[in-house]
């Protein structure tokens, strides 16, 4: 069983999503393992989720939680969370902080009884649940849950991003659907090339939703496809965050080839760009946050921004071969991009103002 869920800016309340999370946890009888990048919940939503965790523990479920902390290096796009470790550590459940140094523990998944997986782009924060576009998959499959469980065990045992993601991307059958789980950083580079390969094989349609697009293999492949003009290509990014990437490229010297490639395919494909709010600790975090790639009838869905830094983070992605699922994901991308204007890039040579401080 594979269930897709979609979240929209202003489309649901934090309590709505908290109740979904609580329902997922409420089905646990043996174990709950959560790897969550960003946890910032308040008021009723916080009480609902905390209550579900404590209820699970009270009925004998083994609950464990890993989460990302600290990031003194260059700020990624979108910026890192402000999870309050002291609040999580106060919960009477086993927790493990994972230092996001130099790369992030960027997962957003939960495993129930090593049988069901909740995964996707949805962080566990108030703004993520109410002001961002996101997509998740709930997959009932002991084989898939086993792969995620191995990844969770890596993080729990080592407490280290670099030594994680070693689970091999072996396909599993979920009913009649082939699903291949990918984990980074060990397989991050291979994942980027895999996505690029699937894009290059597409003959009918390509749909993309990602806050940013900076992975070399993916960027180069999309630019070439758009130059050929033989495939229906469309998508949506976060306009504000793309400007932040351009700023970083010009600082580190990557602009010489990446900026023309990015401009070529974004303009040729008519990508939309969400004009999200410039990031600051006290502003609304309303990013276009979905991470979806559709290439004909193959889809990629998960936590992975289509970026070089994403290849180095602890990430997960589901590669799914199924026409109906690809249709639904493509329709969601089209729905989002219809809401926003065409993406705008600064003129060549212009350096956009940073969307957040870059050390």
Structure write-up:
The protein is α/β, with parallel strands linked by helices and 359 residues long. It has two domains: 2-180, Endonuclease, Chain A (2-Layer Sandwich), CATH 3.30.870.10; 181-337, Endonuclease, Chain A (2-Layer Sandwich). It has helices spanning 14-26, 43-58, 85-89, 126-131, 142-158, 188-201, 216-228, 239-252, 255-269, 308-312, 323-337; strands spanning 2-7, 31-36, 39-40, 62-69, 95-99, 108-112, 116-120, 124-125, 134-140, 172-174, 177-184, 205-209, 232-238, 272-274, 292-295, 298-302, 315-321. α1 (14-26) packs parallel to α2 (43-58). The radius of gyration is 19 Å and the shape is globular. Mean pLDDT is 89; it is low at 72-76.
